[in-house]
Amino acid sequence: LILGTPGAGKSFSVKREILDCFLTTVDDIIICDPEGEYFPLVSALHGQLIRIASNSEQHINPMDITIDDYLFSNPMEVIANKSDFLISLCEIVVATVFLLREAVIDKCVQSIYKHFIENEPTPEKMPLLSDLQQELNKEGEVALRVANSLEMFVNGSQNLFNHRTNIDMSNRIICFDIKELGNQLKKVGMLIVQDTVWNRVSANREKKKITRYYID
Hints:
alpha/beta; 4 strands
């Protein structure tokens, strides 16, 4: 936690620490950048810049799971964590999700990933938010409000998260540029960034590898 008055050099101190960490350790580095000011540093270090905005061509799929973790580690924990995340995502979209709707969402998530795993799972076949919406539509009136609320994020103007991930998430240094994330997407976008970071941290923990996460 770095504190200081505006212009005192907080971000500059963080950048110096990131550079030092990159050069003297093998740790992974993740940056959440609200002002779009870390691009020159990340670019110089050949890192992956992820620009999250409605007109961006870079995409993060919120339905991503680590296939190896599912197949060779604890499949129930992987799906339970993803279900918990998607319930939180739908709760933000719908504003209020009651326990009955949570149960329906959990049922749909279980069904989607069961089908995905049973059919030779690959990143190219990873489920999308549209798959969740279609599954919800099958569940009748209880799930209909959630499915309808997802429409804007599936087929509407804010459908940037209804694509498969098309960026290098294995890069040692990753920067999420959220400067252009509008008010409509702020909460949803931040939740998806946090889930993506958590997936990386979990994978690194299994490898006994340190992850440094900087939020400016």
